[in-house]
């Protein structure tokens, strides 16, 4: 089979398509004939540490969808031919192994490309908005970098949960494209200058939950934009700024909650723990059409390099998906 591998250091990355043997499903695993897999910016961030020792090669891709080709020992609830989607290592391959605990039935209403764009990004959004963020209907949600994959997923999930959503982006065109998805207010800026507009829009209440996909350059401004008992999720740092000032007086007096969202140090069991709730609480919204994944671009299997370049240039709105075989 063909499979994409990457070598990453602190300064550069190299992609390589390889011929590799089809893996064998082990205990509790599904062998999946991949039909589509989605790109995620975190897997390409230099120095992020997701690829092991610098200079080593690793099969890449973190989420996808396809047909079950075989099941390993102890697998129940899935059989050969089933449509599945889920987080899995080495998803940019013709075949990949998916843990049963991560596998979800792909709704028939979704294409392979749409299904592939859900598992990682929307599970992250579910973690931020529901599990840790405790968003409630009628609350204000602020998303920095709202046009990113995680940003769009957070917007869509926030709207079906009844939140009012404010998003920031450096592109007015991207903000305009997100209005049909329910964006209540778009603020065209990349600078840490949006707190006054957030306070004005919310009647001086502030944002109840903030999703920071950008990094340290906007952290202090996020704090200034937060409501009493507000929550702030840090999920990325595409600006490369890893340190920021914290207003301890505001943190103390306004009873803020600050939390990070990453699977880097979590065990398989910890990562999979939220999947049953996600299946029960979020997948019905996809099946019913209340959420439709926002696809920016679908590219052929051989075009991973071009797709990666588009993602790193920040030109996308929503998800970029790698396609194996014909479109569905």
Overview of this protein structure:
This protein starts with a strand and ends in a 5-residue tail after the last strand. The protein is globular, with a radius of gyration of 20 Å. It is built from eleven helices and 16 strands. With 328 residues, it is of the alpha/beta class. The protein has helices at 112-116, 119-132, 149-160, 172-178, 195-201, 216-224, 248-253, 268-272, 275-281, 283-287, 304-313; strands at residues 2-8, 13-19, 29-38, 57-59, 63-71, 83-87, 95-99, 104-105, 140-144, 164-169, 185-188, 207-212, 226-234, 257-260, 295-300, 319-323. Strands 3, 5, 6, 7, 8, 15 and 16 form a seven-stranded mixed β-sheet that branches. Strands 11-10-9-12-13-14 form a six-stranded parallel β-sheet, with helices on both faces. β15, α11 (304-313) and β16 (319-323) form a beta-alpha-beta unit. It has two domains: 2-118 and 264-323, Medium-chain alcohol dehydrogenases, catalytic domain (Quinone Oxidoreductase, Chain A, domain 1, Alpha-Beta Complex); 122-260, Quinone Oxidoreductase, Chain A, domain 1, CATH 3.90.180.10. The model has no long low-confidence stretch (mean pLDDT 94).
């Amino acid at each position: 089979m063909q499979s994409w591998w990457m070598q990453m250091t602190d300064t550069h990355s190299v992609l390589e398509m390889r011929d590799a043997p089809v893996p064998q499903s082990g205990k509790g695993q599904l062998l999946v004939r991949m039909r589509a897999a989605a790109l995620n910016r975190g897997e390409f961030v230099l120095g992020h540490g997701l690829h092991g020792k610098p200079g080593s090669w690793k099969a890449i891709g973190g989420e996808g969808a396809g047909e079950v080709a075989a099941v390993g020992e102890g697998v129940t609830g899935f059989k050969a031919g089933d449509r599945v989607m889920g987080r899995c290592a080495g998803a940019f391959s013709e075949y990949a192994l998916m843990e049963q605990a991560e596998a979800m039935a792909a709704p028939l209403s979704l294409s392979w490309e749409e299904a592939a764009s859900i598992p990682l990004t929307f599970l992250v959004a579910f973690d931020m908005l529901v599990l840790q963020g405790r968003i409630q209907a009628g609350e204000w949600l602020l998303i920095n970098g709202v046009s990113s994959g995680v940003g769009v997923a957070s917007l869509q999930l926030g709207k079906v949960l009844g939140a009012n959503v404010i998003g920031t982006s450096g592109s007015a065109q991207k903000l305009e494209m997100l209005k049909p998805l329910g964006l209540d207010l778009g603020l065209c800026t990349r600078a840490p200058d949006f707190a006054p507009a957030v306070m004005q829009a919310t009647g001086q209440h502030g944002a109840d939950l903030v999703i920071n996909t950008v990094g340290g350059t906007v952290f202090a401004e996020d704090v200034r934009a937060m409501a009493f008992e507000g929550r702030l999720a840090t999920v990325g740092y595409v600006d490369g700024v890893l340190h920021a000032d914290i207003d301890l007086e505001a943190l103390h007096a306004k009873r803020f909650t600050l939390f990070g969202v990453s699977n880097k140090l979590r065990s398989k069991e910890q990562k999979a723990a939220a999947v049953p709730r996600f299946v029960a609480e979020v997948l019905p919204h996809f099946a019913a059409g209340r959420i439709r994944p926002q696809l920016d671009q679908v590219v052929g299997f051989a075009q991973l390099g071009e797709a990666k370049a588009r993602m790193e240039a920040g030109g996308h709105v929503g998800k970029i998906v790698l396609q194996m075989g014909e479109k569905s």
